[in-house]
Each structure stands twice: as C-alpha cells, then as structure tokens.
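Appendix B. Raw example, untouched.
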Amino acid sequence: GGEAVLVNPGGTVRAGLPLLEEAAAALKKAGLKSATVAGELHVRHADGKRARVHDVSRIARKPANAEEVGQLCFAVFDLIEMDGEEVAGDYAKTWKRIGELFAKGERTAPVETITTSDAKGVLEAFEKWAETEGGEGVVARSDESGWFKVKPRHTLDCAVIGFAEGTDDRAGMLHDL
C-alpha cells in the first residue's frame, strides 16, 4: 500500500516516521510492491556527535519533539524478500541492489561498508571503526563462511543488585540487569 513500518526483534512496530516515508518512496520508485529489509535503526546528531544505543532507545520510545524523530535513520544491510520472492545467493548482487534502492537516501541508506578479500582488511576496519572511532565493532560477511559480529572484549567487575524477567513469550528470560 505504499507504506513502510519498522518491526524490531521483540515485535514492536513503528510507523509514520520520516525515514519510513523515504524508504517507502525509494521502494515504490523501484517498482516494488513489497519488501522485507534488514538494517539497524540509529540516530544522526546534527553536530556529528556519535550516537549511542540509549539515544536510539529514548527517541524511538519517547521522542521530545518532531526534530528528534527526524534524527532517526535506518542503515540497510540486507534484503530478505522483494515482491514475495526470497532474496538469496550472491551477497555482492544483494549489496549492489541495496545501493540501487537506497544510495540516495538521507535517512534510509546502505550501512557504511568496505569490501575486502582477507582477514587483514577486516582487522583494519575494526581498528579504525571500533578502536579509533569508538564504534561498537564490525560485521564480517562472506558467501562461503556466513557472517560474524566482531566486537571489542570488555572486562567488568560488578555486582548484580537487581534484575527483571521478560514477559509473555519472553517469560523466564532475563530482560534487564
């Protein structure tokens, strides 16, 4: 119907966001009637400051104003289905299609990506994005090996002073610590 929604792994649905209007327009312009797109919701600060996960959570759950809602962006990293057909196979072709669909997006755009043919390239990206720039890590993807999240290791000494369990289908699972 020309509209897009976000659905997170917990089942929360969000609609009516500027980034979704942009995504729907891009898909419609490409002649698609339906698509399932995987990506990551993030916040783009006007001052270029690095956004943190709590920025995304706060704005997605309870934005202070329309300007904050406009800061929400979506970094596309995969196509799951288009017009009812599963997208599978050569990821280079999928990545090319992501670029065709979303490269001109302001709020919905392809995730920042490099292409490398060896572990050294992954390590260099990790050192730049995670260690130097303070990012969360990198995702390494290969058609032969699958995909892996590479994140820095942190050691914390802490005491648990409280926790909450999940509800409904997540009952009995840890929700907050």
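End of appendix B.
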